[in-house]
Amino acid sequence: MKFHPRRTIRALLLPLAAGLALTALPAQTAQAASTLTNGGFESGGSGAATPAGWSEYGDTGASYTESGGHGGSYRLSHYSASAYKVETYQYLSGLADGNYTLTAWVRSSGGQNAAYLALKNCGSPEQRTDLPVSSSGWIRIVTPVKVTGNQCTISVNSDANAGNWINVDDVTFTSGTTGTSGTSVHGADISSLAKSEAKGGVYRTGSGTAGDALAILRSSGMNYARLKVWVNPADGYNDKAHVLAMAKRVKAQGMKLLVDFHYSDTWADPGAQTKPAAWAGHSYSRLKTDVYDHTYDVLSALKAQGTTADMVQVGNEINGGLLWSEGSTDNWSQLAGLINSGYDAVKAVNSATPVALHLAKGGDKAGTEWWFDNALANGVRFDAIGLSYYGYWHGPLADFQTTLDDAAARYGKPVFVAETAYPFRLDSDDPLTNQIDTTAELVPGYPATAAGQARWMNDVASIVEAVPNGRGLGVFYWEATWTAVPGNGWDPADATSGNGWENQALFGYDDRALPSLSWFNHR
Predict the structure, then answer these.
(1) In whole angstroms, how far apart are CA 244 and each of 85, 212, 237?
(2) How far is residue 364's CA from residue 315's CA, in Å, rounded to a whole number?
(3) DSSP letters of 421-483?
(4) What is the reported pLDDT for 32?
(5) I need a surface site. Which of 188, 317, 417, 500 has the fewest CB within 10 A?
(6) Is the separation of the CB atoms in 503 and 427 below 8 Å?
(7) Which residues are catalytic?
């Protein structure tokens, strides 16, 4: 609980009107230093109206220090019982030109018009990172910048409604790239697209012009496509032939390609890892050959047509293993053999292609450790770790960050979000009830609007960007193009099945690209 009686008193003493612009006062009027001072807000203790070394502008009574820091005893807080705008900033001069990274631990109630950290007056474009909504756990965010002109202003900003609050602590500003110059993967799974188009699906720009969905996504900043592979699906889609055809379109748009092998004829996930019908009676030894042959067949065909995969997943959400029951986590030795067969096939086609292993439950640190510890103990080989993280199922953002950071550090591998998504509305566009269709299911602070969808994606991307040592690769949005098109439902064996996901696509019910596509341009 972040309410403090003193805050209400402060709200009565606000010296400036809430409507003041925070950019009117030049940062240079503050006392300058060449290094950040009091980044932990310990100097001056609790109740400091202006933290030592910092300056304030706007509704200054809404900015102060108080007990309850992240690393020490105190923190910076912004709060008022009435609407407010305030900036807490520190101007640095005498800096050596070059790359710098601002790091801070933050919490936020959400609900603000804006709440962000900024680096400005640095001789390059202003850089901002929004504060993710997190009412309890602290979240680390980073903001990189290139300093030219030997100066920079570090700024904490709130444009808030009554009762909104933020906490900021342990702010650092360090030189060097520090591996946080942004993520490289701004991707989406588009596995549903080919079938959607075949069944009459239409995709439009934000202004309503019909066009190629891939071109629309690419123009919005998407740079990586994820395609799943099924062995012999009932509807004929997501098989080798369709993956080859879509790969040509992906590469023609200048995007990279992640190939996601399910080793099934249908969905593979933590609740189901059903062997392909053609492999059903095969022994474990034969299944290892099946995995190798299928993987090699698809990837070598992609390479032959000039669309070599840039990354490959051996299995999809394999928390419980794959190719049950032979490849269950009840038999780690056999599971390791199956995964390594896939790994070997990938490397046989192209030794430079990274192999990712993909788990669901991105907020489950203990479960992730259990899985990968067992994998390593049994000799499983892999190059990267992908996690599914759906905030309405997998826990708060702070838990996700803890899991992601731990995986990167514990196993020394790059990490990425293999799947995430968020609704832009709750009602359905087909007869099937959506998987997320009530406000009670939403992540607090993230409404089911296009703005809420964009905010979710940007905040998830910020957490991946903050993974230490540059090990955060980026994010794949799951099923950006899965709009409600009759015949393109969830069940490949049932043409009448509905979608259940159209309210989490990145195209609206009018087929237009949503404003939330802007997240692809996340730094």
Answers:
(1) 53, 18, 11
(2) 19
(3) ---S-SS-SSSSPPSS-SGGGSPTT--SSHHHHHHHHHHHHHHHHTSGGGTEEEEEES-TT--
(4) 59
(5) 500
(6) yes
(7) 317, 419
